[in-house]
Amino acid sequence: MTSIVFYAIASLVVLSALMVVSLKNLFHCALFLAVAMFGISGIFLFLGSEFLAAVQVLIYVGAVTILVIFGIMLTRNVMDEKIPARNSQVLISFLVGVSFVLVILFALGQSIFQWTNQPPGPGYPAAGSTLNDIYALGPALILPSHGFAFAFEFVSILLLSALVGAIVIARKDPS
């Protein structure tokens, strides 16, 4: 029964992600992006990580999707019929995407994360235990010795630059 639930949620995420990259209407793409991110929070719930599911809904479904929708709605003529909805570089994009996936799979194959039962260092839960304590999760994510602080800083800079870019595009003088 649990595998059926997982495959249903995973298929929802994959189908909505395919709709994001295949639809012509940008507003509909943004809505399917919200569905995909909401499905990922469902996977987090399925895995027993309620905190990450809540963070996924608040940050990605709430903030990022709303930012993308505002960027689409505030940009002049982005939904115009005269603008081509398809890109002429589909083959190059596909090759870059496949090579990116291969690099990630190679990096995962070389990593020891999946194949050992030993925790990588202090601040991580013991092998076989579950981490349900938010007070222990915070330092494990933020401590610079674990290397996760860079990801938080990078995402904050990315969101700030997307917000500034949306404002610049929306405020651009039509002449």
Classify the secondary structure makeup into a structural class: mainly alpha
Quickly count the helices: 6
CATH third-level topology: Four Helix Bundle (Hemerythrin (Met), subunit A)
* Strand runs, count: 0
Give the assembly state of these chains. single chain
The share of residues in helices is 55-70%
The radius of gyration computed from the alpha-carbon positions, rounded to a whole number of angstroms, is 20 Å
* Mass-distribution shape: globular
> What's the CATH first level?
Mainly Alpha
Q: Give the second-level CATH assignment, the architecture.
A: Up-down Bundle
Write down the domain tally: 1
**CATH level-4 homologous superfamily:** NADH-ubiquinone/plastoquinone oxidoreductase chain 6, subunit NuoJ
% residues in beta strands: under 5%
Query: What distance lies between the first and last C-alpha atoms, to the nearest angstrom?
Result: 60 Å
What characterizes the major β-sheet? none
Query: Element order, helices and strands?
Result: HHHHHH
Low-confidence stretches: none
Mean pLDDT: 77
Based on the model shown, name its key terms.
175 residues, mainly alpha, Four Helix Bundle (Hemerythrin (Met), subunit A), 6 helices, 0% strand, globular
What is the fold's blueprint, element by element?
Elements: H1 2-22, H2 26-46, H3 50-74, H4 90-110, H5 134-142, H6 149-170
Structure description:
α2 runs antiparallel to α3 (50-74). The protein is 68% helix and 0% strand. It has 175 residues and is mostly helical. The chain has helices spanning 2-22, 26-46, 50-74, 90-110, 134-142, 149-170. The termini are far apart. The model has no long low-confidence stretch (mean pLDDT 77). The protein has a single domain (2-119, 133-170), classed as Four Helix Bundle (Hemerythrin (Met), subunit A). It contains 6 helices and no strands. The protein is globular and about 50 Å long.
